[in-house]
Amino acid sequence: MFYRLLSVVRRQRTGRGWQNWSSGRSGASAAEAHSVALPAQAQVVICGGGIMGTSVAYHLSKMGWKDIVLLEQGRLAAGSTRFCAGILSTARHLTIEQKMADYSNKLYHQLEQETGIQTDLETLEILKLVNCPETFTPDMRCIMGESPSVQGYFVLAGMNSAGLSFGGGAGRYLAEWMVHGYPSENTWELDLKRFGALQSSRTFLRHRVMEVMPLLYDLKVPRWDFQTGRQLRTSPLYDRLDAQGARWMEKHGFERPKYFVPPDKDLLALEQSKTFYKPDWFDIVESEVKCCKEAVCVIDMSSFTKFEITSTGDQALEVLQYLFSNDLDVPVGHIVHTGMLNQGGGYENDCSIARLGKRSFFMISPTDQQVHCWAWLKKHMPEDSNLLLEDVTWKYTALNLIGPRAVDVLSELSYAPMTPDHFPSLFCKEMSVGYANGIRVMSMTHTGEPGFMLYIPIEYALHVYNEVMSVGQKYGIRNAGYYALRSLRIEKFFAFWGQDLNTLTTPLECGRESRVKLEKGMDFIGRDALLQQKQNGVYKRLTMFILDDHDTDLDLWPWWGEPIYRNGQYAGKTTSSAYSYTLERHVCLGFVHNFSEDTGEEQVVTTDFINRGEYEIDIAGHRFQAKAKLYPVTSLFTHKRRKDDVELSDLHGK
């Protein structure tokens, strides 16, 4: 070991409960220890000598760091660590947790060889039941990563009684993060930046932890929601939508509508329905999707993260060109879909940016990007008083008008032509809607369906919503929720960050080459990695699967995380799935890998490799045949129609 261990010892105080038992077991060693003077400086200082602190120190030393100080107020593993003996389950809900637990298990056996001390993991027995403090988090997942506000300050805590299971793996990933700037696995589900200040309320934590503890070992059905700490962040339309039958889910503390229950439905029975099979809301979402395709629907999407970047000169454009892969030097009013990449070419964020003016940009990101994206931008933006980054999430209510009749609704409310000739796709205009001025209207819907996003100053939100619903009655308007949005976006092969895309996913691996401008005239973060990947090929590819022999009414549904088999061999896992009411089939998205049958090593994945395979999706041990597509089915149909039209016009021309 290369790190220095400093034991800052204080006399054990007499106490009750678990503290008394602690004193009895460790008093002798504590008395024999002596205080050691702290060094003036160190490469890293680790506070806490439990399994997490010692694991981080161990892995840092393995990676070459030598000037490591570990601070512990008593003796090593004197806290909750010593009460976790034998809790080494590797059956975990999240993939990253399974990997941490598997690695930890192997590491503990390896330590026997390195130290000569037996871990005796197979022969542990319960010696005493102890009531002691333990740390729990609001979502039952540990906290890991660099602080969004203090650079160089890393956190590894909140193990939810799984410290021994995660200790080796969690310490390894955090050590990699500290040494290399990123871990070797996607750890977003554990990232400290998934939380914001809103989750630090003592009352919120007290109520949520009381709910969390029983849920740790409970069966998690798909799309379940916490019941405590709710209605923390709401849209100005919350009460209005709730009165119309909205059922809610929560993301980053924000209430979002799942679907709207019609008056004739049994609300209580619907809310209590928990299943891995066809859910009771199936018909409700079907009617919302149908309305999106045939008429017009309204979805409140106010939870999306919204930033404004402005400057007095060209600083805003220059920094955004460096931070994003697409070309943002577009005419005022245009919208650009782009990725915010890391040095490896992976997605730190996937967003849309509208150019409001020559020196002003409006950035729209997923809901859970609010803290992460802000921290990334602040870390990479220069300290320049002429460059301003502002979080305006709370300033705007966002309404998504989806459907072919959305253009009719807005035309009546704005007295402005909204046809594609006057308002082309991916365009942004500030206009009046009803009596309200300053509404940012964008010709996109995040679903591939026609329609518009309205970003409304919050004081006008209720007025604009009422006007839209009133005028829209003649066009068959209705409310819709995120379940309908999910179905629409998955059947259009729209990948979402945090589900399908992450920090280890590149644009070339998910068919988004068009959102990367390698020759835009300046360097950007991740460009070198993408150039190398373009030359060498990709080792995984996001693919859409349409289930063939799956009975929606009788079979278990795919939700996410199902194994993908190609020609009978494991090839990856699904990342998201939904029922397509258009195709009348289940659609799954997932990454296909090319594992060598001899060595198991990953090999290059080509279009031909995808197209030549026979695929199955494993749902709870039963494999269902699936058709693999690299492009959305609707696009293939459109391409065929255009080809037929061209051939027909050629025939008429002759």
Account of the 3D structure:
The strands form six sheets. This protein has a six-stranded mixed sheet. It contains 16 helices and 25 strands. The protein has 654 residues and is α+β, with helices and mostly antiparallel strands. Helix 3 (95-115) crosses helix 4 (163-180) and helix 8 crosses helix 13.
Summary of the model, kept short:
By secondary structure, the chain is of the alpha+beta class.
Offer a few descriptive terms.
25 strands; disordered C terminus; disordered N terminus; six-stranded mixed beta sheet; 16 helices; single chain; 654 residues; globular; alpha+beta; six-stranded antiparallel beta barrel
Output the number of helix runs: 16
- Which percent range describes the beta-strand content? 15-25%
Helix and strand composition category:
alpha+beta
**The biggest beta sheet, please?**
6 strands, mixed
Global mean pLDDT:
88
- Low-confidence parts, pLDDT < 50 over ≥5 residues? 1-32, 635-654
Distance between the termini: 84 Å
Quaternary arrangement of the chains shown? single chain
Radius of gyration: 27 Å
How much helical structure, as a percent, in the residues? Answer: 25-40%
